[in-house]
Amino acid sequence: MAQILILVEQSENRRLLAEYLKQYYEVTVENTVAQTKPVSFTDDPFDLCILDGRALTHLWEEIQSRKQQEQPVFLPVLLITSRPDVKLMTRNLWESIDELIARPIEKAELRVRVEMLLRSRRFSLQLSESLAREREQNELKSRFISVASHEFRSPLNMISGLTQLLETKQDAVSEKKADFLQRIQKAVKRMTTLLDDVLVMIKTEVNGLDLAPVAITLEPFCRKLIEEVKLSSSYARTVHVTYEGEHDPAYCDEVLLRQILTNLLSNALKYSSSDSVVQLQIQRRSADVVFQIQDQGIGISPEDQKSLFDAFYRAANVGEVSGTGLGLAIVKQAVDLHGGTISFSSEVNAGTTFVVTLPDLAHREVNSANV
């Protein structure tokens, strides 16, 4: 039940207010405020304070202080005044008071005004509690990022290091064992890439991500990335690269660009037949770069296309092809962070084409500086 504090000097008004409001709320009444500061106002919890002009004269500084202490939660104060009493309107009234009600007071009007103020306080409390829960969840995510970065990477690094050590002793390792070691290395690379993607995704949700644009010569960057993707997977597909436009470097965030292209190329290779060709077209324009990744794979049904960028969502026709459902969600997040756009077209059993447009960040900074 809501708690109301009444600070009214006129005894009969105080009695009538308390008598009426006690039917609906818990009420605390201070008998006098002229000589002493009421302890209940400074220390005790309440949801609404009702006071008159004389109480406001003595307590306006305490009112402002108490309201500031409650922030960001709204603590309403209702002032009872007479219509001719305009002197109160000139001394920081609206820094202390949230609502006025004029004497003589109608009970129905009083109840409505009280309920409206209490409703605003409830909404404010709910919002504050939601924000506190969100902050707590963000702190948990931050701790998870810290733990995962160390605890997950350490065993992966150890496995990778030991397999590399064994691979250097090829004369003592049979061909079959060497193949197993390569598979281990590929699995470690896939796990490391997935871990990086998930950690960046969580970190971005919690703290945001500062863009770090660097000059990237796109064609060699993409060709090298394709080799890395193919080496870390078991999908031996052909990727055909075409390049249009100037060959001067583009300024992009390398981490985000790598996430975008790695996930799109991995999906194109994963969901295509072994004899098909994946096309990567790069178009360097004056203010942006367009990447088009086209495959001849299983395609995406119209029903699945609506949820394609949702985290952990996987299309119904993926069959036994392994995956987490995070790749395209990560791509969409990375594209948005880079200030770009992504679109796609797809037909079941015919293939899928993704088109990603990313602004040249150097060009954008120049434009901003000229504004």
Automatic annotation (TrEMBL):
EC number(s) recorded for this UniProt protein: 2.7.13.3
Q: Which GO terms describe its molecular function?
A: ATP binding; phosphorelay sensor kinase activity
Q: Which residues form the Response regulatory domain?
A: 3-118
Q: Where does this protein chiefly localize?
A: membrane
Where is this protein localized, as stated in its record? Cell membrane
What GO CC annotations are associated with the protein?
A: plasma membrane
- State the superkingdom: Bacteria
Pfam families recorded:
HATPase_c (PF02518), HisKA (PF00512)
According to the entry, every stretch annotated as the Histidine kinase domain falls at: 147-362
- Which residue windows are transmembrane per the record? none
Name recorded for this polypeptide: histidine kinase
